[in-house]
Amino acid sequence: MSQPPYYVGLDVGGSTMKAGAVDDAGHRLSSVSLPTEAERGQDLGLRRMCEAIRRAAAEAGLAMSQVAAVGVATPGTMDIPAGVMLDPFNLKPWQNVPVRAFVQRELALPTAFQNDANAAAHGEFWVGASRGAHSMVLFTLGTGIGGGIVLGELVVEGEHSHGAELGHMKIEMTNPRRCGCGGYGCLEAYASATAVAHRTLEALAGYSGTSALRALVEQKGAEALTCRDVFTAAEAGDALAERLVEETAYYLAVGATNAMHVIDPDVVVFAGGMIAAGEPFLERIRGHVGRLAFPVPAARTHIRYAQLGTDAGFIGAAACARQLHRRTCQGTA
Ligand SMILES: [Zn+2]
Known about the structure:
Elements: E1 6-12, E2 16-22, E3 32-35, H1 42-59, E4 67-74, E5 78-79, E6 84-85, H2 99-107, E7 111-115, H3 116-127, E8 135-141, E9 145-151, E10 154-155, H4 188-191, H5 193-205, H6 212-220, H7 227-235, H8 239-263, E11 267-272, H9 279-292, H10 295-300, E12 302-305, H11 312-332
Parallel strand pairs: 1-4, 4-7, 8-11, 11-12
Antiparallel strand pairs: 1-2, 2-3, 5-6, 8-9, 9-10
Helix pairs in contact: 1-2, 3-11, 5-8, 7-8, 8-9
Bound molecules: zinc ion.
């Protein structure tokens, strides 16, 4: 049985946007994916966001009048209090997109707006890997590394909408690698899926031993090498791939330890494609954290994988809508 009130969350990504209706207990009632097609302009993008939300409600058998609030999560730089996307690098040519005002006016519903990684963290905190926890830190491992921090009722947005940028904490100051953000030495430049592939190509160039990865690169081309290829080769016992996976676990443990020493959270969660590597990879991360972190947090902090998969964004956006709705109700009570 679903529990009212109902919310619709929307997660806007570089290639697709995913929306879903969610009930008050966090159950998914529907899910709808539409192509983002950012290149066709932001006006179309905004209309499509509303369409995705309407379809998600309809697929769940809900009239829009039964939806208490909606939440929209988007990537890239943004002004969260203003409800505006600023310059999302993977949604070119969108700029200064007034997401919250448009959706709120078009659907005539209270609308929450949030960064996509913060939303994913909120989703995992509400009904996923950190359900029942008091505080959590989330790392999403993909093309880049996103971050989210939730402390009780608070999703840490920061004073300037740049809080919880965990992928851009500096982990290397000597000969640092260049990051996608333009800076140097960021965690993302070492441990994102893209960075794992880059590090592998560099390692191969200086490696004289035999590795299945060399044959793979010759066969499909350097650009086509993926993080998954490296993890698969490591599982098959390839020595170079094993080294790269081990180093990746170490970098992620450095990031987790830094976050633990700042926040001291109940749970640290890793999300994204890399978690397909399974429990052995998580054990490696835990092992390094055990050596790097202060003894008490090292012993007590739970380190887990995310549970909501690619639905985390829209569930988290719905969680933001729920929070907005509850605050509004409390305000008028
Ligand atoms: Zn960076």
